[in-house]
Design brief:
The radius of gyration is 20 Å and the shape is globular. With about 325 residues, the chain is of the alpha+beta class. The strands form two sheets. A six-stranded antiparallel sheet has the order 1-2-3-6-4-5. Strands 7-8 form a two-stranded antiparallel sheet. The protein has helices spanning about 1-5, 55-70, 115-120, 125-140, 145-150, 155-170, 180-195, 195-205, 235-240, 245-255, 260-275, 280-300, 310-330, and strands at about 20-25, 30-35, 35-40, 75-85, 90, 100-105, 210, 240-245. The N and C termini lie far apart (about 40 Å). The protein folds into two domains: about 1-110, no CATH class; about 115-330, Aminoglycoside 3'-phosphotransferase, Chain: A, domain 2 (Alpha-Beta Complex).
């Protein structure tokens, strides 16, 4: 893996030779950022909820990523490219050799127009929020709804997600989450299921369980004219098959994580006007807690990632702690 990362940082190894290639790593991906394009390779990991452990699975999910993301960013995702060996050197240029990895090939979006970047410059406007609400509400209204998808809205099916979260987080107690936070969040979540069975069933009856985005936060929205929203969940359908409120709750939580509760309220108001949600405060809080816990979990996973340095791990721990603090604040822990 290290040899491949080094090789693909050479511009000559890419279809678009460039003066510089930057590498960005997450807990599941290695991303090579060139001048005009981006190449994303999936790490050979298996977290239970995500399984990229074989080359064939990584190839399949590369194609799945393109298919699903074209729903909200039609022109951004281009193709799946094989990584091959030219002698002993990895390359993404067509050589006719046997594939040793696969990469999702995308156009590079302007970093300065990412929602998180625009926010950092304090340039988010009400017009931005209105446009985001329109795109997301329109997407939710048209998103697929089948009996298979709808079944994931039941409390028993959705509880699989939250149970899995707490099981996987438990090993990080004392590292990214305190014992008090863990027990409080877990107990509150279980109580919510017991007290709100009818609410989940009402959401199913009203057709609110759809094939959503699943990872709707500020790093995945580009504030250009066509407003591409990208990088949805491709690796596990049950994370996309959810209540539409769970989808928008991720973005609201992300704004609140960054200290922008006022923007979150404005966005929710615009979205709510279009989606016609009523008296959903309890469910919205539940979903924001869920999303904050997920972000705390996945950042915590980097503690065990041998491919990143100690400084990056320390930053990941601090980020995870902040998400768990936000989740706890929603319920008064």
């Amino acid at each position: 893996m290290k040899d491949m990362i080094m090789d693909l940082q050479d511009p000559a190894a890419l279809p678009d030779p460039t003066g510089r290639v930057t590498v960005v790593q997450t807990h599941i991906s290695i991303v090579f950022v060139a001048d005009a394009f981006v190449y994303k390779i999936k790490k050979p990991v298996n977290f239970g909820f995500l399984d990229f452990s074989t080359l064939e699975k990584r190839r399949y999910y590369c194609h799945r990523e393109i298919e699903l993301n074209r729903r909200l960013s039609r022109d951004l995702y281009l193709d799946v490219l094989p990584v091959t060996l030219q002698g002993t050197t990895h390359t993404l240029r067509k050589t006719g050799g046997e594939a040793v990895e696969y990469a999702v090939w995308m156009k590079r979006i302007p970093d300065d127009r990412l929602m998180k970047s625009v926010f950092a410059r304090d340039e988010i406007t009400e017009n931005h929020l209105r446009q985001i609400a329109e795109v997301v509400a329109g997407f939710h209204a048209e998103a697929a709804m089948t009996p298979e998808i709808t079944a994931f809205g039941s409390p028993q099916r959705f509880k699989i997600n939250t149970d899995e979260n707490f099981e996987q987080i438990s090993r990080y107690i004392g590292i990214t989450v305190s014992k008090k936070q863990f027990q409080g969040l877990k107990g509150w979540t279980e109580d919510f299921y017991r007290s709100n069975q009818s609410l989940f069933m009402e959401r199913i009856a009203h057709g609110r369980i759809r094939d959503c985005h699943g990872d709707l936060h500020m790093e995945h929205i580009c504030l250009t004219k066509d407003l591409p929203i990208f990088d949805c969940i491709e690796f596990n359908d049950r994370f996309r098959y959810s209540d539409t409120i769970a989808d928008i709750a991720f973005l609201l939580m992300d704004l609140e994580y960054r200290g922008a509760a006022d923007l979150a309220r404005t966005l929710w108001d615009y979205y709510n006007d279009l989606a016609r949600e009523e008296e959903m405060d309890a469910l919205l809080t539940f979903d924001k807690v869920y999303r904050a816990v997920v972000r705390g979990k996945v950042n915590g996973f980097q503690v065990d990632d041998a491919s990143i340095g100690e400084e990056e791990k320390e930053m990941a721990v601090l980020t995870a702690k902040k998400y768990f603090e936000l989740a706890s604040s929603y319920i008064g822990i």
